[in-house]
Every structure is written in C-alpha cells, then in structure tokens.
C-alpha cells in the first residue's frame, strides 16, 4: 500500500526480490530509475505500483552492457513535430546469420519522439529500397511529411537511388563527415542500447546468437514503451 508524505508525494512499498527482477527482465533489463518513473506515470500495463530498488548488480547486465563513452550531441529542440527529422544507421549485429537468414539491421529514430523502428534484411544493398518504402509508409499512415534524414556517409545512404528519391519528395539528406560517428549520435546511441539490451537478454535466457534479431524486436518494443523523453518528461 502506498502512503503520502506531508508535501503530497507518494511513496510505494518496496517490490519483493522476485517481483523487481522479473520486471527488470520483462522490460529488457531497463534500469531501475526508469522503472520507477513508469510506476509514477502509470504508463506500463500490469506493472505493480511498487518501489523498485536495485540492491545488487544484475549478472546479465554486467555481461551484456559494455560501458563505453557515448556520443553526446546537441539536442535539436527546433524540431517540434514527429517525422520532421529521422536519424538512421545500419549495423550488423553478429557474424552469423539469424534464424531468418537476416544479417543487417536498419535502425530509424524519430528526433522529436525518439520512437524507434527497425528493419532486417540480408544485403546492405537493400537499405535504400527499405528506406524509401518506410518513408512512404510512415508519411501515408501519419499524414506528415518527412523533411530531413540524417545518416553517416556510407554508400548505403549516399547513392543515386536514394538521392533521386529524396530530391523528388523534397527531403534533405544530412550526412555526417567520414570517421565522425558522433555526428550521427542519436542513431549510434540507439544502436548501442539495442545491442546491449539484446545481448543482455540472450545472456540471461541462455539462448544462442541465432535468436538475436528476435531479441532486437523485444528490446525495441519495450524501449519504445518505456522511453522517457526529457523535453516531454513523459514516456511514449
């Protein structure tokens, strides 16, 4: 049962060991600070209204999350509508193919909402067609025009096919300089968090890397629904 402090703040009873670690795993090993934010905002269906205290390290998180310097990029708060700026990046999660024979992942992040989409495919040459198909789909479904696409300088993004498509639709392409991944920091950070979450889940479930694309689906699903955007101070 929760109680109120004199200033009206609500304090929740502590979650038991089994409950807190169960929800930590269900939310793709989400950190406990953000789990408590979801409780406060009542944004996760079925999540018990308890206080989630981390009193010991998670073994799977230690194995799966390699803490390296993240890319700090200036927030572009001039973007005030979804789909006006999309960050994109391509990565190959593992050397071996998935159970569906997919080798590459295209990650797309909306600047305003920080909502993430992903697409799997076998060949890097499919990236341009995937981007064009995705752009048409989200514009039609949301009745909003994509205005900018920000990527790195690789040929999967910088090619005649995609350039012609963007020119016809009036979409500006924003490329980072070669060897400066920090300039595409939003997509790079999302790749990092997705990869860490998927490896962590696979470590915790003792599944092989052939299931990595399925783990990416789960990680992206839970991260989209537990994402706390500072400018909104809310989850999506």
UniProtKB/TrEMBL annotation:
<dbReference type="InterPro" id="IPR039537">
    <property type="entry name" value="Retrotran_Ty1/copia-like"/>
</dbReference>
<dbReference type="InterPro" id="IPR001584">
    <property type="entry name" value="Integrase_cat-core"/>
</dbReference>
<dbReference type="GO" id="GO:0003676">
    <property type="term" value="F:nucleic acid binding"/>
</dbReference>
<dbReference type="GO" id="GO:0015074">
    <property type="term" value="P:DNA integration"/>
</dbReference>
<feature type="domain" description="Integrase catalytic">
    <location>
        <begin position="77"/>
        <end position="236"/>
    </location>
</feature>
<dbReference type="Pfam" id="PF13976">
    <property type="entry name" value="gag_pre-integrs"/>
</dbReference>
<protein>
    <submittedName>
        <fullName>Retrovirus-related Pol polyprotein from transposon TNT 1-94</fullName>
    </submittedName>
</protein>
<dbReference type="InterPro" id="IPR012337">
    <property type="entry name" value="RNaseH-like_sf"/>
</dbReference>
<dbReference type="InterPro" id="IPR025724">
    <property type="entry name" value="GAG-pre-integrase_dom"/>
</dbReference>
<dbReference type="Pfam" id="PF00665">
    <property type="entry name" value="rve"/>
</dbReference>
<dbReference type="InterPro" id="IPR036397">
    <property type="entry name" value="RNaseH_sf"/>
</dbReference>
């Amino acid at each position: 049962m929760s109680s109120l402090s004199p200033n009206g703040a609500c304090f929740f009873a502590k979650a038991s060991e089994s409950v807190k670690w169960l929800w930590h795993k269900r939310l793709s090993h989400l950190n406990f600070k953000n789990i408590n934010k979801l409780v406060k905002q009542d944004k996760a269906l079925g999540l018990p209204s308890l206080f989630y205290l981390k009193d010991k390290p998670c073994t799977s998180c230690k194995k799966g999350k390699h803490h390296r310097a993240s890319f700090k990029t200036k927030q572009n708060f001039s973007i005030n509508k979804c789909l006006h700026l999309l960050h994109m990046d391509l990565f190959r999660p593992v050397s071996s193919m998935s159970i569906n024979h997919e080798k590459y992942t295209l990650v797309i992040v909306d600047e305003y909402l920080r909502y993430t989409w992903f697409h799997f495919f076998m060949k890097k040459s499919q990236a341009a067609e995937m981007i064009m198909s995705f752009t048409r789909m989200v514009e039609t479904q949301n009745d909003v025009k994509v205005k900018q696409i920000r990527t790195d300088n690789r040929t999967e993004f910088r090619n005649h096919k995609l350039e012609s498509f963007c020119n016809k639709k009036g979409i500006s392409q924003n490329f980072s300089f070669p060897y400066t991944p920090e300039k595409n920091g939003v997509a790079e950070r999302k790749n990092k968090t997705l990869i860490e979450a998927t490896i962590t889940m696979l470590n915790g479930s003792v599944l092989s890397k052939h299931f990595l694309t399925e783990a990416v689906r789960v990680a992206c699903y839970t991260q989209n629904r537990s994402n706390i955007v500072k400018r909104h101070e809310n989850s999506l």
